[in-house]
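Q: For a teaching handout, I want to show students what a protein-ligand complex looks like in token form. Below are the inputs, and the small molecule is iron/sulfur cluster. Please produce the holo structure.
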Amino acid sequence: MLELLQKAQEKPHNLSLVELEQLLSVSSKEEMEMLFKAAYSVKERYIGRRVSLRGLIEWSNICNKNCFYCGIRAGNKKIKRFRLTKEEILATADFVHSAGYGSLVIQGGELENSANTEFVADVLREIKSRWGNELGVTLSLGEQTEEVYKLWREAGAHRYLLRIESSDPELYKSLHPQGHSFERRVECLHTLKRLGYQLGTGVMIGLPNQTLAHLARDIEFFAQVDADMIGMGPYIPHQDTPLGENIPVTAEYMQQQLLLGLRMIAVTRLYLHDVNIASTTALQALAPDGRERGLLAGANVIMPNATAVGYRAGYQLYANKPNLDENAEETMAALEASVKSIGETLRLNELGDSPHAKA
Ligand code: 5AD
Ligand code: SF4
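A: Here is the structure, written as tokens, with iron/sulfur cluster included.
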């Protein structure tokens, strides 16, 4: 295993599929520690002991899609739908800017209609005119046409997150109803890259019927689409979804999901080297120190929720989503303390571009 880790550390893309799978499969505490340390040292080489922040604005939970795993799927009639106004989004962006996050992510359900398209473009233009290059803007609004992506790019967005969820077409199909096209999603990723966005993608980790071989191929897929950023997290069953309703979420299950998520972060770092990798909220949902452990396994970005507290309950993609009742200021103080506790510092007032995008 030492040899394998050394080889991986030498240069990017230096592991075969079998070797990726081998690293993903380590199970003893000692081996996992070795894996995390190796990934951390690669992260340190490219990025240092620094964490970038993205203020996350969950602007609307209205979604036309019906992904089998997701708590805000159109078919879930139990949740109340909301949409932030332009003023509410700008007020949140103002907080994100003045707190020194340097960058924000506007995330929402997938809607393809001209009113939505124009609304987003209008908000982007306003953000750009107020804060210019002092605030990085990432969108995460699902699949759209090339024209829409182009309009939003010109209006000021420079990064886009669109998870592939699983790079295996069969597994992807089993997670989505008919009409959700794997091919279109891949096409969207290529389009975004071509339009000059910094491209983020990722998968859910620990899905039913997902094997380590799937995950190994997911990592190769990230390289194939030339991703600049990776956002991925453990799958967490949601009781009001077709995929999650019969999965008992025991303490043991949560622990397994957490460790698999951490190993996936580490192996992705060891394969891709210079990308931004987020330590996502889903890790934190599984353990109070999940996010810090993600950073120690090779991630370098955290995305604190900047959405007003009153709306957070409406954005439950999965059960037990953390920080539903913390206000944003408390989150900032907690963040500084938590990052310090693992010997890292926050990169304040920086855009925090992926070194890969600059390479
Ligand atoms: N568990 C973990 N992640 C989920 N997502 C949606 N539902 C779940 C779940 N049950 C993730 C998807 C999506 C992102 C916005 O949230 O990967 O891309
Ligand atoms: Fe909509 Fe995204 Fe949830 Fe799918 S995962 S239902 S596209 S919000």
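A: Two things your students might notice: The chain has a mean pLDDT of 93. The pocket of iron/sulfur cluster (ligand 2) is lined by residues 63, 65, 67, 70, 72-73, 109-110, 142 (CB under 6 Å).
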